[in-house]
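Need tokens for this chain, all 128 residues.
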Amino acid sequence: MKFTLFFVTGLALAACGPKAGISDVRMIHAPPREPNCQLEMIQIDPTTITVEQRWEILGYVTFSDAGTQDPFAKANRELLRPRACAMGGTAVGIAVNASAQNAVGAQGSAISYMVLRPKSLPSEPEAL
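Here are the structure tokens for all 128 residues:
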């Protein structure tokens, strides 16, 4: 929970100025998939426990830029796909879509995508 609060606070600060950038944060290391792998775009509520019950959160990909961004824009999807595939993701969902305007009128935004894969069932422990 502390990481999520830290992460969201960082996004809010990134949205305050016109700094363009892409950052990746990996939570779980998984085997990479090919760069143009198929990804499912899912609608999630990251505040609910059901996300953690069905999906493993492999990491986050965050875009920050001047102006307002469309999280579903083709350009964003083209930048997101190879990063999410490299993390081993099979699905992505929007964790945060924030925009802000500073005192001099400059507007910035940040979009953070959760990179997900279905949670695998725990295997039975081997007998000794």
